[in-house]
From TrEMBL:
<feature type="binding site">
    <location>
        <position position="102"/>
    </location>
    <ligand>
        <name>[4Fe-4S] cluster</name>
    </ligand>
</feature>
<comment type="similarity">
    <text>Belongs to the eukaryotic-type primase large subunit family.</text>
</comment>
<protein>
    <recommendedName>
        <fullName>DNA primase large subunit</fullName>
    </recommendedName>
</protein>
<feature type="binding site">
    <location>
        <position position="22"/>
    </location>
    <ligand>
        <name>[4Fe-4S] cluster</name>
    </ligand>
</feature>
<feature type="binding site">
    <location>
        <position position="118"/>
    </location>
    <ligand>
        <name>[4Fe-4S] cluster</name>
    </ligand>
</feature>
<feature type="binding site">
    <location>
        <position position="158"/>
    </location>
    <ligand>
        <name>[4Fe-4S] cluster</name>
    </ligand>
</feature>
<comment type="function">
    <text>DNA primase is the polymerase that synthesizes small RNA primers for the Okazaki fragments made during discontinuous DNA replication.</text>
</comment>
<feature type="domain" description="DNA primase large subunit C-terminal">
    <location>
        <begin position="14"/>
        <end position="181"/>
    </location>
</feature>
Length: 190
């Protein structure tokens, strides 16, 4: 079935209410620095496509942010716009790529200055703890989430994060960022 189109103007609000921590993080980095490295643009771009951001809207969305820096215009034409076309199967191998699963994100390599990856797997415990607090989670949630992350149970930690931020658990253990999004949106429709 055809996905409902997501209004790009709602993305900021959705990022706070419905995005998993991995995607919310990339969104916030993009908004604050007007830049994301290649792997993040692919990963976050495919997630946005998965929630219903159409091709033309995606081009506008990325262009608005990425051209805010000094050499952004040139880079957008030369490099960044290709990434948007690629994500939507309009360049390169012309594959209609699907958004990455948690497993793929968790097992990816994240280098310095990169923001893709799973926060429960790739972040320092101290940074994770701080972010959880900023997102309104109390000690009764932070402690088990940090334990789960430390024990390598990243998706269960994410499921607990969902529970703490929605006052109820998701229907299924989180295994895909777009599943997280859909479960969160469904709750807000009740
Ligand atoms: Fe994102 Fe999946 Fe990690 Fe949750 S478990 S933060 S959805 S990669």
């Amino acid at each position: 079935t055809e996905k409902d189109r997501v209004d790009p103007a709602l993305i900021d609000d959705y990022s706070r209410k419905h995005f998993p921590l991995c995607m919310r993080t990339m969104h916030e980095v993009l908004r604050s620095t007007h830049h994301l490295k290649h792997h993040s643009r692919v990963e976050y771009g495919l997630f946005l496509k998965g929630i219903g951001l159409l091709y033309d809207d995606a081009m506008t969305f990325w262009k608005q942010e990425l051209t805010k820096t000094a050499d952004g215009d040139k880079k957008f034409e030369r490099e960044y716009s290709y990434c948007v076309r690629y994500n939507y199967g309009k360049a390169g191998k012309a594959v209609n790529w699907t958004p990455y699963s948690c497993n793929k994100i968790i097992t990816s390599n994240v280098g310095p200055g990169e923001h893709h990856g799973c926060p429960f797997r790739h972040w320092d415990a101290a940074i994770l703890k701080q972010k959880l607090g900023e997102h309104g989670i109390g000690a009764e949630g932070i402690i088990p989430i940090l334990d789960l992350a430390k024990g390598g149970h990243y998706q269960i930690a994410c499921t607990k994060y969902f529970e703490c931020t929605h006052n109820q658990p998701p229907v299924m253990t989180i295994n895909h960022p777009n599943q997280y999004f859909e479960e969160s949106v469904n709750l807000s429709k009740d």
